[in-house]
Model the fold of this input.
Amino acid sequence: MKEEIYKKPKQKNDFPPNLENYEEAADTFTWKDARPYVDWVDGGLNAAYNAVDRHVQTWRKNKVALFWEDEAGVEKKYTFEDISLLSNKVGNILKDFGVERGDRVFLFLPRVPELYFSFLGILKIGAVAGTLFSAFQEQALADRLENSGAKVLFTTSELKPRVDKIRKKLPALEHIIVIDDPSFIKSVERASDELHIAKTDPDDYAFMLYTSGTTGKPKGVVHSHRAVIQEHLTARWVLDLRDEDTYWCTADPGWVTGIAYEILGSWSNGVAALVYAGRFDPDRWYKLLDKYNISVWYTAPTAIRMLMAAGMDVVKKHNLTHLRHLCSVGEPLNPEAIRWGLKVFGLPFHDTWWQTETGAICIANYPAMDIKIGSMGKPVPGLTAAIVDDKGHEVAINTEGNIAIKPKWPSMMHTIWKRPHKYKSYFTNGWYISGDRGLKDKDGYFWFIGRADDVIKTSGERVGPFEVESALVAHPAVVEAGVIGKPDMMRGEIIKAFVVLEKATLEKTKTKPQEEALKEELSVYVKKHLAGHAYPREIEFMDKLPKTRSGKIMRRILKAKELGLPIGDTSTLEDY
Ligand code: WTA
Done:
């Protein structure tokens, strides 16, 4: 295959990238050299202090940290000092509730300003913040809140009924704070804005996120304050954030990108950031890029593909000349998306690779490095990445294997909450095995091939098939379900479910309209019980699912059949 290379134009000398020479940094930089980039207070490291409070000691005190806008067009603005003081208030309110270091405090909120300063307030008192995507429904909420033993939950009056339904399953949950309730608004007014920020150890837990694997319930990936070091440096080197920028990360803090690059790493660089609390809409997105003079933009391939599909007319209405650096994360970035970026913005998207577990960008394309279009780039300076076989031995150049990272890197997860064995299972022969397959070429560029397991990536969001299967079998008409990711031009993958129906239902769904109605009902059921984004867009009824002799559903076979691929080894397969 012929390589397509985007050669970086020569930088003007007065505007060099933050990381001027990738190769040199990759050869010489070690994590010890990272120490001066963050503020240590009396030997302690607090990620929230680094994100906002350290700027309050400088000229950035009155600089806008957050430009906020919602779908209805309501606008708000907060300086670094505003966010520092508001997060102090939240810290004090939580202390009054008896929240102590190490306690879990969860945020079940849409992208409202309160989400951002509450997150920081939690970290400032040494408690552990957990974020919950606002599309979550009862089952997804119950799994996460039960396992984490959250003591306090922040939510809105609109979302609270979902929590009420599962409240009895949550004995550890002592307080629900409803942020639009007058009593909370009053308590914020009254609370002191002076707070003694906890002198947290770099290894103290700071935040946790639930994410999906192939089997079992979602797992709580726990990160420590140390993560801010790598989040800061990668925001500086990869996103190339500067004081003059207005930066827009389109992720939700319910996912790791929204924490690492919308709160911690981005603000620790003192950048002014936009948060848009609304749904995707091409015209609106271009309008926001234009109105806020966005210069650095971090988004995801599905969004880029949707913008591509919306066509050129809508682009032309807006002035997008402030854009200077574009990055992408979450799924493979198609070469067409890069070519389109070059055509429309005159700029290439820079792919970045990482995971909830890695806590920060690990492999990336850098502003000063030529892009091999289709490649994820090279490891972050300080970090060692490799392609290894299943036993943890490095494989030859251009050979497919597991994408692996050498522990420890600063933002590496510290544990899986209450599941130490699960945590251990990530490591083989001294390598962290990511679950992604890829290869490394002769020039050290990494290329993504696919997942090693059944994890689904739909619109950039990570969904475990087991969660969807469990939600489906909870419906009375369903006996069994097998769920896979099916390749999709727009969304990367869509969720497809193969469902075995209960006998009586089967008899009642003989006609096409009856069948369609039931499929619709099942989709809605998953949407309502699990999460708004994790429902199957396609359902197929089956008489029987392929299983191993021990009764495990073989998704691999469902997928191969769906894609018309060879089925592979079936020696463990039950008669099918
Ligand atoms: C996938 C998101 C291809 C990958 C920050 C990984 C990618 C999973 C890329 C983690 C990329 C992420 N190219 N695939 N540049 N970036 N992925 O935990 O399969 O939500 O394992 O973290 O997304 O998803 P997660």
User: Anything to note?
Assistant: Residues 5-440 form a domain with the Rossmann fold fold (CATH 3.40.50.12780). The chain has two domains: 5-440, 456-563.
